[in-house]
Amino acid sequence: MKDTAHAAARFGVRTVTGFAGSSVWHSIYTFPPTDPAYRDAGFKNFTRRWLPVLDVFDEVGGNFALEVHSTEIALDTVSAKWALAAVNHRPCFGFNHDSSHLA
Questions:
Q1: Alpha-carbon distance 8 to 83, whole Å?
Q2: What CA–CA distance (Å, rounded) separates 103 from 97?
Q3: What is the CA 25 to chain-centroid distance, rounded?
Q4: Tens digit of each residue's pLDDT (9 = 90 or more) over 29-62
Q5: DSSP 46
Q6: Distance between CA 97 and CA 9 in Å, rounded?
């Protein structure tokens, strides 16, 4: 993804939309509820993997827009807030709007 940030900058693309993945998405909305420590560990993993990527987006003046989707670290508004907190509300990290997910 770091290479993608550099390539986008060379092409003059300011925002890259994509996926980040998640090691815990399957446990966030399932029943019975998952231990919050498990969820927190997944978001710490997301922080560890994505802060260096966001550093590159900052370096090149770009942004990353995560598609809110199942299998992703952010799959609804609650997990989107957790994801923003996990990356310290970095201005270069946000979300794209895919209206097909509203239905």
A1: 23
A2: 13
A3: 12
A4: 666 777 888 889 989 999 999 999 999 999 999 9
A5: H
A6: 22
Tell me the residue type at 95: F
The Cβ-side half-sphere exposure at 44, using a 13 Å CA radius, reads 6
Cβ atoms 29, 60 nearer than 8 A: no
Is the model's pLDDT at 93 over the cut of 80? Answer: yes
Question: Do 63 and 17 touch, CB atoms closer than 8 A?
Answer: no
d(CA 34, CA 32): 6
Question: What's the one-letter identity of residue 61?
Answer: G
Instruction: For residue 15, list its beta bridge partners.
Output: 63
What's the sign of the alpha-carbon dihedral 19, 4, 23, 85?
Answer: negative
Q: Report how far apart, in Å, the C-alpha atoms of 8 and of each of 55, 77, 103 are.
A: 15, 28, 31
Q: E-strand spans in the chain?
A: 15-18, 63-67, 93-96
Question: Is the overall model pTM greater than 0.90, yes or no?
Answer: no
